[in-house]
Amino acid sequence: MGNEIIKIIKIFLASSSELKDDREQFEIFINRKNKKYIEQGIFLELVVWEDFIDAMSKTRLQDEYNKAITECHIFVSLFHTKVGKYTEEEFLKALETFKANGNLRIYTYFKNAPINAGQIGPEIMTLLNFKERLHNLGHFHTSYADINDLKHKFSEQLNKIMPKLAGEIEPAFHQEQQEIEQALKREIQQLEQQKQEIEQALRREIQQLKQQKQEIEQALRREIRQLEQQIGGHRPCTLLDKLIVNIRNTINLFRRWLIELNKWFKFAILCILALILSLVIFYVREITDPLSACNNTPDFISCGEKLGFPDYPSPGQLLPEEEKGREEFAKGNYKEAISYLEKAWEKEKDPVTLIALNNARVMYQLKSGTISPKNVFTIAVSTGFGDKIPPDFGGSILTGVGWQQAEFNKNNGIFKLIVVMANDSNNDDEALKVAKELVGREKIMGVIGPYSSHATYYVLDDYLEKLVLISPTSTATIEAFKAQDKNKSQDLSWFFRPISTTEIAAQDLVKYLEKKGYQQVIIFHDNDLVAQSFYNNFKEELDKSSINIKGEVNITTSPIDRVNSLKQKFNQLKDKTALVLISDAFIDTESKEKKIQIIKENRGTFLIAGNNPLFNDEVLELVDTIGRESLEKMVIAIPWYPSDEESKKLADFVDQKPLPWSTKPKLNWQMAMAYDATKMLVEAIVQQLEQGQMPSREGTRNTLAKDDFNTEGLTGKITLKGSDREDPSSSLISPDCSTTPCDWRKINP
């Protein structure tokens, strides 16, 4: 659509409740029409009585409907077996509006579907009387057989009137600007009136003080004359003389005080008026400015303007074009920023560049007035960068979010998305700082993240009843969350996720081991939340199987040389024994190094089975140390693995170019789940818009919590049961070194 300005055409739909199905289908029809008209810079806004149900009003609700009619461009009424009192009132209001200005187009449709005998009642006379009234008014109505016939006939009318109607309407953004300007003018007029009233009140106060001053002066003069008379005209004594002088000095001091008081009153009034006006302007700006979420951000938050955010892929390696693009972004020169960032994105598919570019495009459209601030929505993503977490993990999450943002902004015409990026360093305390900062930025509708289950659990209470949190990567079960700390809130009603939990992964891994004939396992485990969750689920599944536990090792506290003794002890049963590595979510750097060392020490003696954190490039790089055969003797349970067709979608998006951490554009589960988490959040916002509601934080949460909420993601259809995905799945993968470098391949459970 480019940078065309949108014109909004309002259509009021009136009918009785008996045509509920036709009304719903008509609304869907208008939404589909918008896909065509939006390319022409036109948006059809359907106004229906359901939009007013929850509205608070001092007036009669029907009066609100009637007022809405006067603001519409097209009035459509549907009738079947009766004409309701309020539907007739709405028609008459439309007719009155047409007669007043001639701008409202009125279309009346009668449904000719067969009427059951049971439907015929006294109300049928209202229909006959109404038709006669239309005839007397000279108003022509149209009959329709079913909803498809109605859509066809109204579509023909739209095609006829649209060229002229579109030419009569002011662009939506201009209308909004005028409304804001008029509102400001009204506020200024009210302030001016208040100023005049205050000045008048001050003048009255000052006049009263002057009058009191005069009365005091007159009384003092009388006292002085009496004193002078009492001393018989002789020179007063020294004491009396001093008294008279002091009285006169007091009068002069009082006079000067009144003059100063008058000055200070005027100054105070001006200050108060200036403060009130500033607050009004600030408030109007804040409620209409989606960029406010990107203003005055700390070092760990960015919309794309910060050179040092984040240290990714590694410090000091920004492309010259990206560096220049971010500098122009920070200055508010969005057109120049877009030019540089597009070149940087072409050279290197850095997800931070992608999100910065997406944001810069939206900000340029806002600044140039081609889109309305009320149609721009802001979300945030909290993920980790730093020594504790592989760069491809945080990068994959940003890629998924930026990918969905780019698709939404491309495919939704007047509606746009801004993404705020936050680096929580995969650390609990940093994630808490991020949470407090994001909650305080009112324009943000929801947050994607954090990466680890432990960080997610740590910040849940800070998002509760304030901001929706959708985690793309947290896999600890709800039971594990609640068991972690009984003193914390057990309310997870503002938390959602598209990813399966450790329970599903543990089931698939145990089934695989049993199917392959493994009889015993030795478990090496970490202590963080996701490791404990997987550990408990895995042991529960083992209890249902024929596999025995022959040993357990706490990776955090035990030395790694246990592997050599296990190799000697179970050498004769090595083909029936598996080492199970249950890893944390990169909470402990030392623990990560120990797991790598365990794989090295094992050197393919036992099958290594593990949970999803083992899915990283550092494991694949061990091929040079332990060899292809040893490395491939490994199976890992992850939430999802893409098909070739699904991987091609990413490759097409990045034009077949490699990502910074990979030699090819490889789709992984973190990226896909981040994409789907963003899709969930965006869908919740869109559904509010489709229902005629202004998206809000609470509305977003309530939409996600609906039983019938669903959306289509990269990983399939997403429906929810509470916080979790209703139909979860997992995949088993193994290293594949048939090509260079090694990669992962999906295996059958």
Automatic annotation (TrEMBL):
The keyword Transmembrane applies. Residues 174-230 form a coiled coil. Residues 393-724 form the Leucine-binding protein domain. InterPro entries: BCAA_transport (IPR051010), Leu-bd (IPR028081), Peripla_BP_I (IPR028082). PANTHER family: LEUCINE-SPECIFIC-BINDING PROTEIN, PERIPLASMIC BINDING PROTEIN OF ABC TRANSPORTER FOR NATURAL AMINO ACIDS. Residues 729-741 have a biased composition (Polar residues). This is Leucine-binding protein domain-containing protein. Residues 698-709 have a biased composition (Basic and acidic residues). It comes from the Bacteria. The keyword Transmembrane applies. It holds the Pfam family Peripla_BP_6. Belongs to the leucine-binding protein family. Keywords: Coiled coil, Membrane, Signal, Transmembrane, Transmembrane helix. The chain crosses the membrane at residues 264-284. Residues 691-749 are annotated as: Disordered. It comes from Microcystis aeruginosa PCC 9809.
